[in-house]
Amino acid sequence: MSSHQEITNERRRKRDQLVAAGMNPYEATTQATHTAASVLAEFAALEASAVPVTLTGRVMALRLHGALAFADIFDGTSKMQVMCTKEQLGEELFTLLTDTIDVGDFIEVTGVAFITKRETQALQATHWRILTKSLAAIPTEHFGLKDDDTRYRKRYLDLLLDEELRQLFYQKATFWDVTRQFMKQHGFLEVETPTLEVTTGGAEARPFKTYHNDFDMPVYLRISIGELWQKRLMAAGYPKTFEIGKAYRNEGTSPEHLQEFTNLEFYWAYADYKAGMQFVQELYRTIAKEVFGTTAFSVRGHEFDLANEWKEIDYAEAIKEATGIDIHTASEADMEATLRELGVRYDGHNRERLTDTLWKYCRKSIAGPAFLINHPTLVAPLAKTRPGTNTVAMFQPIIAGSEVGRGYSELNDPDEQRARFAIQQELLEAGDEEAMMPDYEFVEMLEHGMPPTCGFGFGERLFTFLADKPLRETQLFPLMKPKHEMDLTDSE
Q1: Phi and psi angles of residue 125, each rounded to the nearest 5 degrees, phi first
Q2: Into which CATH architecture does domain 160-310+368-474 fall?
């Protein structure tokens, strides 16, 4: 029999002992009067008044010393030491505690604030009861969970044992709160757009496909946050909209990419990409100051300060300087040869994928903050062409060698949009699974007229960069391949 099973059996025996003593090992209600944090904040007054308080929480440590027992309990706000004595609790209740309570159990404790001999702020218990009896042991806080697979699979323990990690998700929530508040303060209406789509508009990515039984047709999980829907709202007369929501891309996993992630997209009528650049600069600086308390960062070997001037980097010039390739005139064969010489792996042999891969090679050395501008039309099927050029009115913020956002003056010429979609359709038919699906109902909307519009989007990847964490680490429950129940038991 495994040690895991032995522990479980022993804890079941203790649970039965609690039941025999008249305690419900899985209570539904509590009588807590304070949180651990509030007791610590008001400790002097509570100690002076000697008024009993009631706390609840999980036992994180338990030390037995004859007629004394010390427990550290954690309720999610803070940790509190509790001293239990046979004299204060009575022999029956004290013995029940020492016989049945383990680290990991949830208990309710009533007592008075006092200072221990070691000058620790604590609670001297006068009564306790079980709230939840745990059947499986939790790792010690000192050792925690070291294996990444176990950490992600048992995220509840990982978060419980790692205060820094737990605080990271409060910070991430603040990141989106600050973003949402900034958008609303600037007059943007928060909207919700479909997550199931007939065509996956607004980005170039391989989608997840499912089936709509009632309509008897295939549908896709969205790959953008309602780009083509929000632009319909510009035509409908809304001047400013934004959405924060989930996007899904059936692609590879890396420190910067996952298949499910949260993004923001906004659309701003009667504004162009230049106005968008100024707005995004202000937004990113606000996020940095209010979420991280600074605008200066050291990330992945790069030093940058968002308060500094954001230089503009020309897409084609940056590639030519780094690789010698002029993307406007070079052949696909020349591009492939250069990528091979550089030792860069690439997928697809069409001009769009090769151009994008050359840029991704170049960006790694750029610390930022900067804006990448003047992208070739081929890589931005929804962006407005810059007059007299074969580039688009587009911008991407760059920090720490990567893009952390994408925006442009939206293409609102229906004939040009139809022609761009035709090119994407050819790429799809040639086997490019990341090419954009044409949406001709969107083109019909453009025929009715859409005002000049700036659109922009960024995702939680910005948070991960500023926090200097891999994307997977900043998701509460990253997707994991399932393990057989027996495998889980054996591993423990």
Answers
A1: -75, 140
A2: 2-Layer Sandwich (3.30)
